[in-house]
Design a protein that fits this description.
mainly alpha, 163 residues
């Protein structure tokens, strides 16, 4: 896809408009950063630079670095293209659900986190380590992720996606 034909639908998007209303602030921030990452890839931009520019006062450099580490780890061993919902969607795609849930649950149960990630990556363990680091960074910024031990319900596959 040519990036010059794809408008930046996420420019100026607000974290509060990102994802379902039931999400905590930390989950919304994580979803927002994930969508910023994918938007950068679609627009042929460097995702780390985009996050640095767009995140501004939203997250600390520690959180941004931890997120970049996790996404780089995922991209290095992805099994298939990730299904990520279009910017500012109120819902979220199954891969988004699984990744956010895995980040929240990984400190208490790396096994459950691994099961959530095994369909997305070839080796979940490095992603779990990066997700734990991200989880701690978010908690340090008062954006702690909840422990959700239920696997996310299957999302409808007809949602528009970016990646």
């Amino acid at each position: 896809m040519r990036s010059d034909l794809f408008p930046d639908l996420f420019h100026g998007a607000c974290v509060d408009d990102c994802g379902p209303m039931e999400l905590t602030r930390g989950e919304r921030v994580l979803l927002w950063m994930l969508r910023q990452w994918v938007t950068a890839r679609v627009l042929d931009q460097e995702p780390g630079a985009r996050l640095s520019r767009e995140a501004g006062a939203l997250v600390s450099p520690r959180v941004a670095s931890a997120f970049i580490l996790m996404m780089t780890t995922i991209e290095g061993q992805v099994r298939r293209p990730l299904c990520i919902a279009a910017p500012c969607r109120q819902g979220y795609a199954e891969d988004e659900q699984r990744l956010i849930t895995a980040c929240g649950v990984c400190p208490a149960s790396p096994e459950i986190a691994g099961r959530l990630l095994e369909d997305m990556v070839t080796t979940p363990e490095p992603v779990i380590v990066a997700a734990r680091f991200l989880n701690m960074a978010l908690a340090h910024d008062a954006l702690a992720l909840p422990l959700r031990f239920d696997e996310p319900a299957r999302a409808p596959t007809a949602r528009p996606t970016l990646h």
